Structure formats: structure tokens, C-alpha cells
Automatic annotation (TrEMBL):
Keywords: Membrane, Transmembrane, Transmembrane helix. The keyword Membrane applies. The chain crosses the membrane at residues 37-59, 68-86, 106-124. It comes from Hymenobacter bucti. This is Uncharacterized protein.
């Protein structure tokens, strides 16, 4: 029996990259479990490999605009998440900043940067890519 002709583009990554991504998930889960359980030292230590691997993944995927956008969004997500965790660990999360917000709410800045990167990709970059592909 013949296999159907593949018309969709295939995205493949090297096994070593996949292993790094899987390790990244493990570090991220340990960081968030540490936050949940208030294991301050482990939670803070896990920020470094979690964020470090996210940066490496973003760097390695920089040639593919879609992958880069999503991986940068993850970098900013982890940054926001880690800041929020540390604000709670060190007890400054509920201290007011000005009249409108608390320190933990400053995590909205990196969260928003990640969201803006994705919005730019989906509203500007991806339509350009689609337009070029159809020409």
C-alpha cells in the first residue's frame, strides 16, 4: 500500500534539542511545585536552569519566526512567574506600588511583553509569511 503524498510542511527538531526541552519542563515543574510548597531555596535555585534553558531554546530557534516568537513569550512568562514567586517568598508581594497596585502585580510587565510578542507574530509576521508563501 502506498503512503499518501505529504503536502504539509514538516517541522523536525534534533533529538538533543528535544531532550533539552523535556529537561526544561522538569525544571519548570520543580520550580512551580517549590513555589506551591513554599520551598524557597529550591524554588529560587530552579529559576536559573528554567530560565537559562528557555533562553537557549529561544536562541536555537531564532531562524524560525514562529518558534522564536513563542519561545520568547515563554522566556517572559517564566520571568514574570519567577518574579511573582520571589515577591511572595520575600514578602513584598502585597506591598503597594503607588496607589493602584501591589508589587506582585508588576509581573504584568513581562507577561504583557510576552503577549505583545505573540500578538505581533500573529497579527503582523504570520500574515506576511502567508502572503509570501501564496505568491
Amino acid at each position: 500500500m502506498e503512503s499518501p503524498v505529504q503536502t504539509e510542511e514538516v517541522y523536525a527538531i534534533p533529538a538533543s534539542y528535544r531532550k533539552m526541552e523535556n529537561l526544561h519542563i522538569l525544571f519548570w515543574l520543580v520550580k512551580d511545585i517549590s513555589w506551591c510548597m513554599i520551598w524557597k531555596t529550591l524554588g529560587i535555585l530552579m529559576v536559573f536552569p528554567t530560565l537559562g534553558i528557555a533562553l537557549i531554546i529561544a536562541w536555537r530557534t531564532r531562524a524560525l519566526q514562529s518558534e522564536l516568537a513563542h519561545n520568547l513569550a515563554i522566556v517572559f512568562w517564566i520571568s514574570a512567574n519567577s518574579y511573582w514567586m520571589m515577591s511572595e517568598f520575600f514578602g513584598f508581594d502585597t506591598r503597594p506600588v503607588g496607589h493602584l497596585t501591589d508589587f506582585k502585580h508588576l509581573a504584568i510587565i513581562p507577561f504583557s511583553i510576552g503577549l505583545l510578542i505573540l500578538l505581533y507574530y500573529y497579527l503582523v509576521q504570520k500574515p506576511r509569511e502567508t502572503q509570501v508563501a501564496t505568491l
